[in-house]
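Entry 14. Ran structure prediction on the chain below.
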Amino acid sequence: GPPWGRRRAARHARRQPNLYLETSWCGSGEVLRLVDEVGPDRVLFGSDGAVDGPWHFVQRPPNVEGRQTYNQVLLAIAGQLDPAAARKVLRDNTSRLFGLVSARPGSG
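Output, structure tokens:
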């Protein structure tokens, strides 16, 4: 949604411990701001990649706020968050909330 809606959602998430923020169509700066506001345990990286396919991550012109591709957002998040926080936002939070088993090297 629009920036004002994202700020409102973050305010609600700070007050309600069972609310999580999903980042479809958010640029990397917005994702990092949301992580700062509600913490890395409450943010889920999102895109429309499941619907639009893999090209969605490298679309030209850029599809996220007209400035970044989803691949650029992913790289910025991974580069600017500490590794544990990046794993939470990019994988672990979704796995935990939806009861998904995460395949890790050496796990079986």
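The CA atoms of residues 7 and 34 lie 8 Å apart. Will compare against last week's run tomorrow.
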